[in-house]
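Dear colleagues,

As part of the handover before I leave the project, I'm documenting each prediction I ran so the next person doesn't have to rerun anything. This entry is a single chain, and its sequence is reproduced below.
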Amino acid sequence: MIVSIHQPQYLPWLGYFDKIDKADVFCFLDNVQYKKNEWQNRNRIKTARGPQWLTVPVSHRFGQKINEILINNNEKWPKKHLQGLITNYAKASYFDDYIGLFEKILSQHWRRLSDLNIGLVEALMAALGLTETDTVQASEMSLREEPTDRLIDVCRSVGADVYLSGKDGANYMDLARFEAAGIAVVFQDFHHPTYPQLFGEFESHLSIVDLLFNCGPEALSVIRREDD
Protein backbone atom coordinates (compact mmCIF):
# COMPACT_ATOMS: atom_id res chain seq x y z
CA MET A 1 0.00 0.00 0.00
CA ILE A 2 1.26 3.45 -0.94
CA VAL A 3 0.72 6.52 1.25
CA SER A 4 1.50 10.12 0.35
CA ILE A 5 1.51 12.92 2.92
CA HIS A 6 1.21 16.67 2.58
CA GLN A 7 0.09 19.75 4.46
CA PRO A 8 -3.47 20.81 3.55
CA GLN A 9 -3.13 23.60 0.99
CA TYR A 10 -5.58 26.11 -0.45
CA LEU A 11 -6.69 25.27 -4.01
CA PRO A 12 -3.42 23.37 -4.67
CA TRP A 13 -1.48 23.04 -7.90
CA LEU A 14 -1.49 20.04 -10.25
CA GLY A 15 1.46 18.29 -8.60
CA TYR A 16 -0.48 18.04 -5.33
CA PHE A 17 -3.19 16.03 -7.06
CA ASP A 18 -0.60 13.90 -8.85
CA LYS A 19 0.64 12.94 -5.39
CA ILE A 20 -2.90 12.00 -4.38
CA ASP A 21 -3.46 10.07 -7.62
CA LYS A 22 -0.38 7.92 -7.13
CA ALA A 23 -1.31 6.87 -3.59
CA ASP A 24 -3.79 4.45 -2.04
CA VAL A 25 -4.08 6.73 0.99
CA PHE A 26 -3.40 10.47 1.20
CA CYS A 27 -2.70 11.94 4.62
CA PHE A 28 -3.34 15.60 5.35
CA LEU A 29 -0.42 16.61 7.57
CA ASP A 30 -2.45 19.14 9.51
CA ASN A 31 -0.62 18.98 12.85
CA VAL A 32 2.71 20.56 11.88
CA GLN A 33 3.72 24.21 12.15
CA TYR A 34 1.92 26.69 9.93
CA LYS A 35 4.20 28.54 7.51
CA LYS A 36 3.30 32.10 6.67
CA ASN A 37 3.36 33.28 3.04
CA GLU A 38 3.50 29.79 1.55
CA TRP A 39 0.71 27.70 0.02
CA GLN A 40 -1.41 26.85 3.03
CA ASN A 41 -3.64 29.93 2.74
CA ARG A 42 -3.16 31.09 -0.85
CA ASN A 43 -2.70 30.10 -4.47
CA ARG A 44 -2.64 31.64 -7.94
CA ILE A 45 -5.10 31.83 -10.81
CA LYS A 46 -4.53 33.20 -14.31
CA THR A 47 -5.85 36.59 -15.39
CA ALA A 48 -5.45 38.86 -18.42
CA ARG A 49 -2.83 40.71 -16.37
CA GLY A 50 -0.92 37.60 -15.36
CA PRO A 51 -1.10 35.36 -12.29
CA GLN A 52 -3.16 36.68 -9.38
CA TRP A 53 -3.10 35.51 -5.76
CA LEU A 54 -6.22 34.35 -3.97
CA THR A 55 -5.34 34.63 -0.27
CA VAL A 56 -7.40 33.50 2.72
CA PRO A 57 -6.81 35.97 5.58
CA VAL A 58 -5.83 34.25 8.82
CA SER A 59 -5.13 35.08 12.44
CA HIS A 60 -2.05 33.28 13.71
CA ARG A 61 0.78 33.27 16.19
CA PHE A 62 4.26 31.94 15.55
CA GLY A 63 4.50 28.24 16.34
CA GLN A 64 0.83 27.40 15.83
CA LYS A 65 -0.01 24.20 14.02
CA ILE A 66 -1.96 24.29 10.78
CA ASN A 67 -5.09 22.87 12.41
CA GLU A 68 -4.98 25.67 15.00
CA ILE A 69 -5.03 28.49 12.44
CA LEU A 70 -8.27 30.47 12.38
CA ILE A 71 -9.60 32.28 9.34
CA ASN A 72 -10.15 36.01 9.71
CA ASN A 73 -13.77 36.16 8.66
CA ASN A 74 -13.99 39.88 9.36
CA GLU A 75 -12.74 40.21 5.80
CA LYS A 76 -15.10 39.39 2.93
CA TRP A 77 -12.64 37.02 1.30
CA PRO A 78 -15.15 34.38 0.00
CA LYS A 79 -16.98 36.93 -2.12
CA LYS A 80 -13.67 38.27 -3.44
CA HIS A 81 -12.38 34.80 -4.34
CA LEU A 82 -15.60 33.74 -6.02
CA GLN A 83 -15.71 36.96 -8.01
CA GLY A 84 -12.09 36.38 -9.04
CA LEU A 85 -13.05 32.98 -10.45
CA ILE A 86 -16.09 34.36 -12.25
CA THR A 87 -14.27 37.35 -13.72
CA ASN A 88 -11.33 35.35 -15.03
CA TYR A 89 -12.88 32.01 -16.00
CA ALA A 90 -16.40 32.87 -17.20
CA LYS A 91 -15.26 32.29 -20.80
CA ALA A 92 -13.44 29.03 -20.03
CA SER A 93 -14.85 25.93 -21.73
CA TYR A 94 -16.03 24.22 -18.55
CA PHE A 95 -16.82 27.21 -16.34
CA ASP A 96 -20.53 26.37 -16.05
CA ASP A 97 -19.75 22.78 -15.10
CA TYR A 98 -17.62 23.61 -12.08
CA ILE A 99 -18.39 27.08 -10.75
CA GLY A 100 -21.16 25.58 -8.62
CA LEU A 101 -18.57 23.57 -6.68
CA PHE A 102 -16.81 26.74 -5.59
CA GLU A 103 -20.06 28.58 -4.91
CA LYS A 104 -21.09 25.77 -2.57
CA ILE A 105 -17.79 25.59 -0.68
CA LEU A 106 -17.25 29.33 -0.41
CA SER A 107 -20.80 29.95 0.79
CA GLN A 108 -20.17 27.86 3.91
CA HIS A 109 -18.85 29.39 7.12
CA TRP A 110 -15.33 28.10 7.72
CA ARG A 111 -13.64 28.79 11.04
CA ARG A 112 -10.41 26.82 10.69
CA LEU A 113 -8.10 27.01 7.69
CA SER A 114 -7.37 23.29 7.72
CA ASP A 115 -11.08 22.42 7.52
CA LEU A 116 -11.53 24.74 4.53
CA ASN A 117 -8.51 23.32 2.73
CA ILE A 118 -9.44 19.70 3.36
CA GLY A 119 -13.03 20.33 2.31
CA LEU A 120 -11.87 21.93 -0.92
CA VAL A 121 -9.30 19.24 -1.72
CA GLU A 122 -11.79 16.44 -1.18
CA ALA A 123 -14.40 18.22 -3.33
CA LEU A 124 -11.78 18.72 -6.05
CA MET A 125 -10.77 15.06 -5.83
CA ALA A 126 -14.37 14.11 -6.55
CA ALA A 127 -14.56 16.58 -9.44
CA LEU A 128 -11.37 15.16 -10.95
CA GLY A 129 -12.53 11.56 -10.54
CA LEU A 130 -9.95 10.68 -7.89
CA THR A 131 -12.29 8.23 -6.21
CA GLU A 132 -9.89 5.40 -5.37
CA THR A 133 -7.63 7.30 -2.95
CA ASP A 134 -8.72 7.41 0.69
CA THR A 135 -7.91 10.43 2.87
CA VAL A 136 -6.94 10.65 6.53
CA GLN A 137 -5.78 13.42 8.86
CA ALA A 138 -2.54 13.26 10.81
CA SER A 139 -4.14 15.07 13.75
CA GLU A 140 -6.33 12.02 14.33
CA MET A 141 -3.29 9.76 14.78
CA SER A 142 -0.81 9.26 17.62
CA LEU A 143 2.48 10.42 16.09
CA ARG A 144 5.96 11.26 17.27
CA GLU A 145 7.26 14.80 16.71
CA GLU A 146 10.57 14.17 14.97
CA PRO A 147 9.98 14.53 11.19
CA THR A 148 11.15 11.10 10.05
CA ASP A 149 9.50 9.36 13.01
CA ARG A 150 6.26 11.22 12.28
CA LEU A 151 6.20 10.02 8.67
CA ILE A 152 7.01 6.44 9.66
CA ASP A 153 4.20 6.54 12.22
CA VAL A 154 1.73 7.75 9.56
CA CYS A 155 2.77 4.86 7.30
CA ARG A 156 2.32 2.37 10.13
CA SER A 157 -1.01 3.87 11.15
CA VAL A 158 -2.55 3.28 7.70
CA GLY A 159 -0.71 0.03 7.00
CA ALA A 160 1.45 1.39 4.18
CA ASP A 161 4.68 -0.28 3.11
CA VAL A 162 5.58 2.42 0.55
CA TYR A 163 5.91 6.14 1.23
CA LEU A 164 5.57 8.45 -1.78
CA SER A 165 7.66 11.49 -0.91
CA GLY A 166 7.99 14.86 -2.54
CA LYS A 167 11.09 15.26 -4.68
CA ASP A 168 12.98 17.11 -1.92
CA GLY A 169 12.12 14.68 0.86
CA ALA A 170 15.63 13.24 1.03
CA ASN A 171 16.85 16.62 2.30
CA TYR A 172 15.14 16.16 5.66
CA MET A 173 14.34 12.46 6.02
CA ASP A 174 16.54 9.71 7.45
CA LEU A 175 16.09 7.06 4.78
CA ALA A 176 17.91 4.42 6.79
CA ARG A 177 15.19 4.55 9.44
CA PHE A 178 12.53 3.96 6.82
CA GLU A 179 14.45 0.92 5.62
CA ALA A 180 14.77 -0.35 9.18
CA ALA A 181 11.01 0.07 9.59
CA GLY A 182 10.37 -1.99 6.45
CA ILE A 183 8.98 0.97 4.49
CA ALA A 184 10.19 1.69 0.95
CA VAL A 185 10.53 5.35 -0.06
CA VAL A 186 9.87 6.51 -3.61
CA PHE A 187 10.11 10.09 -4.81
CA GLN A 188 7.56 12.00 -6.86
CA ASP A 189 8.83 12.95 -10.31
CA PHE A 190 6.12 15.21 -11.66
CA HIS A 191 6.63 16.99 -14.98
CA HIS A 192 4.14 19.81 -15.37
CA PRO A 193 1.93 19.32 -18.46
CA THR A 194 0.74 22.05 -20.77
CA TYR A 195 -2.94 22.46 -21.64
CA PRO A 196 -5.23 25.06 -23.25
CA GLN A 197 -5.53 28.26 -21.21
CA LEU A 198 -7.11 31.67 -21.52
CA PHE A 199 -5.06 34.87 -21.81
CA GLY A 200 -2.11 34.13 -24.05
CA GLU A 201 1.04 32.17 -23.32
CA PHE A 202 0.93 29.12 -21.07
CA GLU A 203 1.53 29.72 -17.35
CA SER A 204 2.51 26.72 -15.21
CA HIS A 205 2.20 26.01 -11.49
CA LEU A 206 -1.22 27.61 -11.08
CA SER A 207 -4.05 26.37 -8.89
CA ILE A 208 -5.89 23.27 -10.07
CA VAL A 209 -8.91 25.51 -10.76
CA ASP A 210 -7.22 26.74 -13.94
CA LEU A 211 -6.94 23.22 -15.32
CA LEU A 212 -10.44 22.25 -14.21
CA PHE A 213 -12.17 25.23 -15.83
CA ASN A 214 -10.18 24.85 -19.05
CA CYS A 215 -10.13 21.07 -19.49
CA GLY A 216 -13.07 19.79 -17.46
CA PRO A 217 -13.47 15.98 -17.53
CA GLU A 218 -10.07 15.62 -19.22
CA ALA A 219 -8.27 17.32 -16.30
CA LEU A 220 -7.11 14.10 -14.64
CA SER A 221 -5.84 12.75 -17.97
CA VAL A 222 -3.82 15.96 -18.37
CA ILE A 223 -2.24 15.52 -14.93
CA ARG A 224 -1.34 11.94 -15.76
CA ARG A 225 0.15 12.95 -19.12
CA GLU A 226 3.03 14.92 -17.58
CA ASP A 227 4.79 16.62 -20.52
CA ASP A 228 8.55 16.08 -20.67
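Residues 2-225 form one domain. The chain has a mean pLDDT of 95.

All the best with the project,
I.
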